[in-house]
From TrEMBL, chains A, B:
Residues 1-338 form the Aminoacyl-transfer RNA synthetases class-II family profile domain. It comes from Cyclobacterium lianum. The gene is hisS. This is Histidine--tRNA ligase. Belongs to the class-II aminoacyl-tRNA synthetase family. One of its GO terms (molecular function) is ATP binding. L-histidine binds at D91, L92, T93, R121, Q135, D139, R286, Y290, Y291.
Amino acid sequence: MRDFGPSEMARRNYLFETIREVFKLFGYQQLETPAMENLSTLTGKYGDEGDQLLFKVLNSGEFLKKVSEADFREGEHNVLPKISEKGLRYDLTVPFARYVVMHQNEITYPFKRFQMQPVWRADRPQKGRYREFYQCDADVVGTDSLICEAEILMMIKQVFAKLGIPDYSIKINNRKILTGMAEVIGEKGKEGDLCVAIDKLDKIGLQNVRDELYQKGFSVDSVAALGPVLEKERRSNQDWFAFLKEYLAGSSTGMKGLNELEEVLAFFSQLGGAEQHVVFDPVLARGLSYYTGAIFEVQVEGVQIGSVSGGGRYDNLTGVFGLAGISGVGFSFGVDRLYDVMDALGIFPDQQSEGTQVMLVCFGEEERKKGLALLSAFRKAGIAAEIYPDLDKIKKQFNYADKKNVPFVAVIGAEELVNDQISLKDMKSGKQEALSLERAISAIINSSLK
Amino acid sequence: MRDFGPSEMARRNYLFETIREVFKLFGYQQLETPAMENLSTLTGKYGDEGDQLLFKVLNSGEFLKKVSEADFREGEHNVLPKISEKGLRYDLTVPFARYVVMHQNEITYPFKRFQMQPVWRADRPQKGRYREFYQCDADVVGTDSLICEAEILMMIKQVFAKLGIPDYSIKINNRKILTGMAEVIGEKGKEGDLCVAIDKLDKIGLQNVRDELYQKGFSVDSVAALGPVLEKERRSNQDWFAFLKEYLAGSSTGMKGLNELEEVLAFFSQLGGAEQHVVFDPVLARGLSYYTGAIFEVQVEGVQIGSVSGGGRYDNLTGVFGLAGISGVGFSFGVDRLYDVMDALGIFPDQQSEGTQVMLVCFGEEERKKGLALLSAFRKAGIAAEIYPDLDKIKKQFNYADKKNVPFVAVIGAEELVNDQISLKDMKSGKQEALSLERAISAIINSSLK
């Protein structure tokens, strides 16, 4: 797990603010849930592997009270439920589902919420994968309108435009198209295995996907029938749709998925969205089995970092908590990966204005009295200001301003005291001028607006 | 632990933003540390009671691997270190100290950092006390300049002024004054017991404080000598200082504390601070034993909620991690309590502009096509906008806007479509007008500026 120092925090806050602004512009409202949830809420939602990766919190006090010697000899499986009742959240989706069920009577549907909080996974740390990382989720539940999907495409494009990320693709697919594929190749009902296998196409290659399908019992004929899908030529979205209209003709589910997809893109176009960056990908499955409609995933070109955003529609998010029939669609930005992307591309904006804008350097005690009054005047003008707190050597004071990247230093010596002026030094250009307080304030504000 | 829905989040963000702005104005830079720290970092820093209240995280995988049957029979004390290595942070001070030691060579001193993150305590939940709550800390380390203390007083006053909290007191004391008191009453070296007892004066009353001191071995004479301090009359700060000048004359440490206090207030006055709300309190000790100089605590009048802010100077924060001689001073806002205070006083500002500002209601499919284009135009103008995603009954759509407190509804029916206009309804006044897009945008922006 990582510490974030001042310059990283300034950049992270820039990402959070950019995403938050877009979420709010689209009518999403913020929600926060606690770090700990009951293990009964968390377990069984992320598959066996996910359950392994949950951080479990030890019950407080005499945590061994309920554990018998027999339990102990049986091992972890018997001991765990007796010493731990809570775990750290693994994502923001399950806590959101729990929230919707708990507050179902207060919520106005459709409910558009966003959530930006850390999640924890007891994973082996590696590049781009952390044990503590932030997710920024936006979901809308209580409507099956495909306008929501179109708005998600708009939001992703808007965030990327604001961040200045030039080359990326928003891959889009529909779970029903995957279901339809399984049907038309003669393997109806096996879309689960199909998804798991073809989802890995980019990672393991065509032959390995085929082998995995054979192992799962797919016939040679059906794998051959998948050919035109797996041997993805570069086609335009429109060419793909034309192809699928024939390919999926035998599956009403598949055709429904295709229609949904076309409708999403129609709404997207009515919203003024340009299809640039939006790429249909027939093998996109995102592993997760709970998607029932649209599936999204965003990849940035030119960097070796996994997907930075993804999501999809689910028809039964809250069913597992006893509230059926709530359809929703959502997506998530991985801020830690976005950070790595921006950093790798070198496109973070200059964050100089985030920190202190002026530092006061005083020659002696009398000057410092004056300095303290000026300090408050700068702050009253909205300028982040500090005074070097000790009467150290002037050089040491300047060094401090330099190391902290403070753009202006205001020097107060004997002469400035007599003339009621400030010697304002622009640390970048090295230029120094004797100014009145008012003119110094203007100079600093004008410079920060550049 | 608590969920925070949209309206609570808007208010909480307002508090965080207000505090963050002031911290930044004073030159503090943001830091974030991970939720989990090694238990070796956390334990032994908060006393026995604190150690009990740490949330411990179970090691992942085969957590019982290292536990022998003998350990198990010995109980929690032997088992804990073998099944848990990490805990959730209990405050932001210890992680900050750990950070300073880890990054000592990269840090420019004086190092001014702020941190706004949740902390966790396995406490029995009660009013004003939560198991998960946010702290907002600002500390400066690497200087013993008393300007820092004066700036803390300024920051507290500025935050309270911005929040509009009218009646509050910033109690201030100095640990050396407490040490001096122990000396002059003839109980030198026993200021620890003295602090613990007199700190409770407001809670348990004079007689109980005296009894506790007797129990701790204080003589009748020395408790009697404390009389003028404990029987706190309402004196002005200046009267107190005059009194203490004689009372503490026999203790050089006590006199040093008094001088420090007067110097803090002199710097505060040079910064332009008015002494209103700043109250010297000779029995303020804040329990914590690591304060070595100034001690602060802020109480809001008119509400039964504990202190909302507090802090002090410590001369050896990082000594326990092997880095001695780093003096610092810091303080913290308890945002959850500040929330309760603001809520109890009914002084949260109207947060209407936080949410969606306009919702589009469309009569049919053709109108919706137009509506989607308008939606993007509103957002392009920076107006948070949404469209009701389904073609439901108009009344249902209006109900949604009403429940979500959306101030404007833009209606698009057949007539509006023909005239290329929007019927903009002000939900508060009920007034409805047919407007061009441009005029509708102006109307919404002007209304939100009010």
